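>> received
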Amino acid sequence: MKDWIKKRIKECNANNIIIFPLREEDVEVVLVNSNPATIMTDEDIADKVYVEPLTVSVVERIIERERPDGILGTLGGQTGLNLTVDLEKAGVLDKYEVKVLGTSIESIQKAEDRDLFRKLMAELNDPVPESFAVDSIEDALKSAKIIGYPVVV
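>> returned
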């Protein structure tokens, strides 16, 4: 249990390292978090805190209400990154003229999409293990025969 608590505190502290300087520069910080148990939902951390499901429709309503200039999807780890991409794909960021700050949508997609990542590594002449992106058990089994075991699915 102690390790779990330490990990959560480290994650929150890493985010606070970004949030506190923003607030020192008089940037209004609006946080959206689905976990009410985290330090990140403490109202002393941000100017406004929403404890809501992290979905496109919910976050769009918050964006519509708060009208932020920018969004830092990197503060939410994997969930925040994916949600930022989903907001972009849904047209929400363009609709409300919200800039993506930090990691670009293109960079997030290259890191998340296995095929795009593989192509990027090939362009950089950086070796990657043989792999396949699959959508079914049948395709996974076929790919495993080609690669050989052990495999990660």
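>> Residues 2-24 form the longest helix (23 residues).
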